[in-house]
Structure formats: C-alpha cells, structure tokens
Amino acid sequence: MFTGIVEELGHVVATEDLPDAARIRIAGPTVTSDAKHGDSIAVNGVCLTVVEVENDSFTADVMRETLLRSSLAKVAQGDRVNLERAAAVGQRLGGHIVQGHVDGTGTILAREKAEHWEMVHIGLPPTLARYVVEKGSITVDGVSLTVVTVSEDQFTVSLIPTTLELTTLGRRMPGDLVNLEVDVLAKYVERLAIPHLRAIAGEEAQ
C-alpha cells in the first residue's frame, strides 16, 4: 500500500524488452537507501517489485498486463519518474489509500497557469468516469490529488508549487499519457451494491 506522496524524482537508467514483459532499471537514492529484493516501490503510480538493488538504482520486471494498462510501456532511458516506497505501519497517511494498481491512462488535455498554482485538465476514460467524484481522491502518476471538477470525459486537478517542482506532473504537457488509479473504496462499494440494485430492479419490474 502507498499514500500517493511522492518521495523523489528518479530517472530510468535502462530498459530491456522481454517476451510479454519488460525489465527496467531506475535510479533513486532515497527509495533504494533501505530497499532489498522483494520490496515494493511505486513507479509513476505502478507498484513494482524490486528484483535487484545496485548503486542507488533498482531493477524491476514489468508484466504484460501492466504494460497494457499503464504508461510504463512508453518509458525510455533518461525519463523522469515519480517514486514512492510502500507505506510503513504507524506512519502518517498524508495522501489516501493507494494500491499501486493502475486502472488505466488519461491524457493531459490542457494546463491553466495562475500565480501560485496550476489547473490541469486530464482526459477520463469512460470505464473510470463513474468512480471519479468532485472533491474525491484520485492518483495521477502516483500522486495523490483531489478532484476539482469532473465530467463524463475529463476531470481537473489543482497543483501546488511543491507538486509542480517535485513530481513529473510539473513537466507533463498536453498530449502526454498519465497513469490513473481511482479510489479503491468506490470500486468495492460498487461491487457490493450491484447485486442489491439488481434485486431491487427485478422486484420493481414484477
């Protein structure tokens, strides 16, 4: 589990294509300071398992499902990435509950700059729209954010200077893909409610 509070901006050292998978090496001195084989590190919001740690960098395997659902299929050597270690029991939950299980990708549509903040418009896939609500939580490239406005095909988030400076979201331009993870609580509520809603609908139809 993660909190969506990015610890550092790392960079991709190398990528290797494998059959139905990929292997990436990422440099990040903060997240590798206590990392070991088998640990979890979120890379742009994707939970990856550490295979090897060496010289302030770690290697992770990316499976086909992850490549299909996230933007990691497009990362290249030198790209900057958001990094966060798994949350430790007893620490403050600064963002919200983040699994690191990306639900899909969105596209940066526009950016509106103000003096002390920036509004970013992000395209919302139809399959995820029902889980996103105004003032709710969403994870964008591993960053825990609050939804400002939402429609059927897009939502907006407001980025403070710290987020702009310390994460990839300060560098994303219109047309760029970002990883999206919706609030897991919304998905569980839907799953539990559907049988009851169907039963009610069936009773009303009789």
Summarize the structure.
17% of the residues lie in helices and 41% in strands. The longest helix is centred in the C-terminal third of the chain and has 22 residues, at 184-205.
Which features does this protein show?
6-stranded antiparallel beta barrel; 12 strands; 3 helices; 206 residues; 6-stranded antiparallel β-barrel; 17% helix; alpha+beta
Describe the structure.
- The protein has a 6-stranded antiparallel barrel. The protein has a 6-stranded antiparallel β-barrel with strand order 7-8-11-10-9-12.
- It is of the alpha+beta class and 206 residues long.
- Helix content is 17%, strand content 41%.
- It comes from Lentzea sokolovensis.
N-to-C SSE series?
Answer: EEEEEHEEEEEEHEH
Residue windows where pLDDT falls under 50 for at least 5 positions: none
Oligomerization? single chain
* Bulk shape: globular
Q: For the report, how would you describe the main beta sheet?
A: 6 strands, antiparallel, barrel
Mean pLDDT: 93
Can you count the helices?
3
Helix content: 10-25%
Strand order of the largest sheet: 1-2-5-4-3-6
Share of β-strand residues? 35-45%
Rg on CA atoms, Å: 18 Å
Number of strands: 12
For the record, give the distance between the C-alpha atoms at the N and C termini, rounded to a whole number: 45 Å
Structural class: alpha+beta
